[in-house]
Specification:
By secondary structure, the chain is an alpha+beta fold. GO terms for molecular function: ATP binding.
Length: 352
């Protein structure tokens, strides 16, 4: 079962004012910093929060509007949060059967549906257990089965893997990738793999507004907002387009290759634009190097973050990935002034 979704919502007390669409069978990931309004948006979609203005429409039916309000239990939406929220007094199969029972199914049909969905999430062997006998990953599988057994038109996921052990998350991500296929879904996540592997599109929120949106692979490889760049692990400098790059707010020109985006021409001189480059393309120098083809950024190191064999050197809004040997040889440490250098051939420029 899948349905198209349209949301326009304003919640004044929370500074929320968003609008976006989800096509039938599409998975959209909501990304953004803490406080951006992602969970508030899910609450509006689920009917847990009534906005001051706006509409929620599923398959042409208005669920929230100026003169209409469908309560949560009648919306055919299912909200799955970090906490599985299983009923402690019911067995696993009874928990899953609760979904179809709540939509009017008889006891026998509800149990058959529960057994089917437990099989779909590889949890049939857990049917007779109680929630306190489950691991975190097992409980979340059961919660997914319960949500799907209710046959929702729209599935809402609020960081479903945030509370799971790192070793468990990949298997659950693979499971979601299978069961979400062709199902209308909105997922809030802070993990780049969720956006890349589960979502068809991403909607980046910041300050209660939509900062950018588009296909996952496009937004995360050519971000136009600071958060999307950080989320994707990229450096981003905003400014206005020049013939060969981007002029930042301080007048510094970042040289790079100017591109268009799908459906849009390359930015013209003076238009808003962003320069994007990988931390691995950045070299760190104690003294400014000579030579004009390179971009040089005088910065102050704020943090050193271990990344296996590499160290991410953070400075303000930029980052460089260098070897442990380089960190030692340059005696890098927070508070040290250095120069980040990146070749123009490593910088890509897009319209903003």
């Amino acid at each position: 079962m899948s349905a198209d979704l349209r949301v326009e919502a304003a919640v004044v007390s929370r500074g929320l004012d968003v609008a976006f669409d989800v096509a039938a069978g599409e998975t959209v990931a909501l990304l953004g910093p803490n406080g951006a309004g992602k969970s508030t948006t899910l609450a509006v979609l689920a009917g847990l929060l009534r906005p001051d203005a706006g509409r929620v429409v599923v398959d042409g039916e208005e669920l929230t509007g100026p003169r209409r309000w469908v309560p949560p239990h009648a919306r055919r939406t299912a909200l799955l949060a970090q906490d599985p929220l299983l009923f402690p007094h019911l067995s696993v199969v009874e928990n899953v059967a609760f979904g179809p029972r709540s939509t009017g199914a008889g006891r026998r049909d509800a149990r058959a549906s529960a057994e089917h969905w437990l099989g779909e999430v590889d949890a049939s062997h857990l049917a007779g257990r109680r929630p306190h006998q489950l691991s975190g990953g097992q409980a979340q599988r059961v919660a997914i089965a319960r949500a799907l057994a209710a046959e929702p038109k729209v599935l809402l996921l609020d960081e479903p893997m945030a509370a799971l052990d790192v070793a468990v998350a990949p298997a659950l991500r693979q499971l979601l990738g299978r069961v979400l296929a062709d199902r209308t879904t909105v997922i809030v996540t802070h993990h780049v793999l969720d956006a890349l592997l589960l979502a068809d599109r991403v909607v980046v929120m910041d300050g209660g507004r939509v900062a950018e949106q588009g296909p996952s692979s496009v937004v995360l490889s050519r971000p136009r907002s600071a958060f999307a760049a950080r989320f994707a692990g990229l450096n981003l400098v905003s400014g206005t387009a020049t013939a060969h790059g981007v002029r930042g707010p301080d007048g510094t020109v970042v040289h790079g290759t100017v591109h268009g985006t799908p459906g849009a021409e390359p930015p013209r001189e003076g238009e808003p634009a962003v320069a994007v480059f990988r931390p691995s393309a950045v070299a760190v120098h104690r003294e400014p190097p000579g030579g004009s083809p390179r971009n040089a950024f005088p910065v102050l190191i704020t943090e050193l973050e271990p990344l296996g064999d590499l160290v991410r050197v953070r400075a303000s809004d930029l980052a460089a990935d260098v070897t442990v040997t380089s960190v030692a040889a340059l005696a890098l440490a927070p508070g040290l002034p250095v120069t980040f250098v990146v070749k123009a051939t490593e910088v890509e420029v897009y319209g903003h």
